[in-house]
RNA sequence: GGCGGCAUAGCCAAGAGGUAAGGCAGAGGUCUGCAAAACCUCUAUACCCCAGUUCGAAUCUGGGUGCCGCCUCCA
């Protein structure tokens, strides 16, 4: 499966708008791989451009220095976000031959003409012009607000090659020194690396016109074949309800947001929307996202703690004699299924609610299968990550019911099942999973972390003693003080657990 | 001015002809030494408004209103 996504024009710090396609395409790629597709993912850098040149002149540097700096910034930020690098990043400056070849081809076929040192694409020669953005050349002309170059035969024509101006980087070409126009690089590079008809082409919604429209015109005219099969356009970012744009100066720096909220919350916030929707950033919404994500993180942590908890090999399973237990409980290999439900009735319940209290392993298995199916169905339907996350919440509820049920007993067999829960959460949402919204476990190697672990163990041990002596005030004081320090203590049947808040 | 998109509970957000997912916040309950976490129950009998098509519309059509975007660099 070939995918080409328009990356960035590297001339300023990476902002949140850059992260939208990055995050969604990361999830899409990973999902497609999970589904067994072989994915070839190409992303470009338009590293020659008016804005880069302007910035370079402003700083008294080479355009290439500027481009390199911001390419590096972009890639670093993607790394911070846990986005897998593209299979190949392509750059305009490294594909001049190919770009010139395509322009030559367009000239030869009559789709482009030379005017002075420039080469323009002749829009009226391409009958389908406007088909992506749903516009006709007439409409476009009527609405044109830009000053038209006198060299153009038609106001809608756009530059394939721009003759060199003083102080600008330039390359040799059949039309003299110059550089490529915006648009042509994506045609040239996608065709070169993915062939004439690849599967998906992505980019921001704002690129539909003119960028992608022009890509289609160039590519289809050049190859005589249809271009990309599917267009996947990601939505744009607003900040407190206002469009975020360079010209308004309200761009949100990606690094700052990552520092404030962490990559997972940012991803979660984005992925709880459909990729095509507008993403409105505000503190309230990020807080909302943060809390929603916490629910998922908590259940995974709880399961992890249960899996890590030492269980005595076999004995423990039959131990609680004072409890009314289904006779077969804990028999290895028994799924519990109908028998457990029947036994619940036998317990002599007065309330229906008791049925739901049963920690029924079969229910857990069903929930796992269902969650994975729903997740797939959601992603299969136009990569509906919002629905996919809902399936994770459904699973979280089932898992919580299971592990918090009064009849829950932690046995080796139950741990095996719980490991499956962890595996699925990891695969679908883990750091290296499809959505990448669950944080990686704290790096165990760090010295501070080891110290904190040790101290917490000591403190919680002291509290356990206090509780055993029914010294509630001491136990509560420890818990309250820790809470003030940002550590939440929760008592569970397997002992106290703690987490940072 | 031309073109396009969107409008679903207090908030966020799926759903795109068959009777409204999920999360956050809120209320009540269960569990707990008390909490926390979790679970259960409740929280949209006008899905912006008005007409229409249909046995049936949040979903389709027409007309409004409001917001946003594109037409100029942007992801």
CATH class of the largest domain: Alpha Beta
Q: Count structural domains.
A: 3
Distance between the termini: 42 Å
Overall mean pLDDT: 86
- Strand count, sense and closure of the main sheet? 5 strands, parallel
Give me the Rg, rounded: 29 Å
Order of helices and strands: EHEHHEHEEHEEHEHEEEHEHHHHHHHHEE
| Poorly predicted segments | 315-355
Specify the helix fraction band.
Answer: 40-55%
Strand content: 5-15%
- CATH architectural name of the largest domain: 3-Layer(aba) Sandwich
CATH superfamily of the largest domain: HUPs
Question: How would you portray this structure in words?
Answer:
- With 501 residues, this protein is α/β, with parallel strands linked by helices.
- It folds into three domains: 2-113 and 124-131 and 181-281, 3-Layer(aba) Sandwich (Rossmann fold); 286-429, no CATH class; 447-500, no CATH class.
- 49% of the residues lie in helices and 13% in strands.
- It is built from 16 helices and 14 strands.
- Strands 3-2-1-8-9 form a five-stranded parallel β-sheet, with helices on both faces. A four-stranded antiparallel β-sheet has the order 4-5-6-7, with helices on one face.
- Helix 4 (96-108) crosses helix 6 (184-194) and helix 12 (361-380) runs parallel beside helix 14 (412-429).
- The two termini are 42 Å apart.
- The model is unreliable at 315-355 (pLDDT under 50).
- The protein binds one RNA strand of 75 nucleotides through strand 1, helix 1, helix 5, helix 7 and strand 11.
């Amino acid at each position: 499966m070939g995918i080409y996504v328009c990356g960035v024009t590297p001339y300023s710090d990476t902002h949140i708008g850059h992260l939208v396609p990055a995050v969604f395409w990361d999830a899409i790629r990973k999902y497609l791989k999970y589904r067994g597709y072989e994915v070839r993912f190409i992303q470009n850098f338009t590293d020659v451009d008016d804005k880069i040149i302007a910035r370079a002149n402003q700083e008294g540097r080479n355009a290439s220095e500027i481009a390199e700096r911001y390419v590096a910034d972009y890639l670093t930020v993607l790394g911070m976000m846990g986005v897998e690098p593209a299979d190949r990043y392509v750059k305009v400056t490294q594909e001049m031959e190919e770009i010139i070849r395509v322009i030559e081809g367009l000239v030869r076929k009559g789709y482009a003409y030379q005017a002075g040192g420039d080469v323009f694409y002749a829009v009226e020669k391409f009958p389908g012009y406007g088909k992506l953005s749903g516009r006709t050349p007439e409409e476009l002309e009527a609405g044109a607000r830009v000053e038209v170059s006198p060299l153009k035969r038609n106001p809608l024509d756009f530059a394939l090659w721009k003759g060199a101006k003083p102080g600008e980087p330039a390359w040799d070409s059949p039309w003299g020194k110059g550089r490529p126009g915006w648009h042509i690089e994506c045609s040239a590079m996608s065709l070169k690396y993915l062939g004439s008809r690849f599967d998906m082409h992505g980019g921001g919604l704002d690129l539909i016109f003119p960028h992608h429209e022009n890509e289609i015109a160039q590519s289809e005219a050049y190859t005589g074949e249809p271009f990309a099969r599917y267009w996947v356009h990601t939505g744009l970012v607003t900040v407190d309800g206002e469009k975020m744009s360079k010209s308004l100066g309200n761009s949100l720096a990606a690094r700052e947001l990552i520092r404030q909220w962490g990559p997972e919350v940012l991803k979660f916030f984005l992925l709880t929307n459909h990729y095509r929707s507008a993403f409105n950033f505000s503190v309230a919404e990020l807080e909302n996202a943060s809390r929603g994500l916490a629910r998922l993180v908590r259940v995974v942590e709880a399961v992890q703690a249960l899996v890590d908890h030492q269980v005595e090999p076999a004995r423990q399973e039959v131990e609680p004699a004072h409890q009314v237990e289904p006779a077969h409980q804990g028999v290895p290999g028994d799924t519990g299924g109908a028998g457990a439900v029947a036994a619940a009735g036998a317990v002599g319940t007065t309330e229906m609610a008791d049925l739901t209290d049963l920690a029924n392993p079969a229910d857990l298995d069903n929930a796992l299968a269902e969650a994975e199916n729903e997740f797939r169905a959601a992603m299969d339907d136009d990569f509906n990550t919002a629905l996919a996350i809902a399936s994770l919440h459904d699973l979280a509820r089932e898992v919580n019911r299971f592990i918090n049920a009064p009849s829950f007993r932690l046995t080796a067999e139950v741990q095996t099942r719980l490991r499956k829960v962890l595996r699925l959460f990891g695969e679908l949402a883990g750091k290296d999973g499809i959505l990448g919204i669950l944080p990686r476990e704290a790096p165990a190697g760090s010295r501070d972390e080891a110290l904190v672990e040790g101290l917490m163990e000591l403190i919680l041990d002291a509290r356990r003693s206090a509780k055993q002596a029914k010294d509630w005030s001491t136990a509560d004081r420890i818990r309250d003080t820790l809470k003030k320090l940002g550590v939440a203590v929760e008592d569970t049947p397997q002992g106290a657990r703690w987490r940072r808040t």
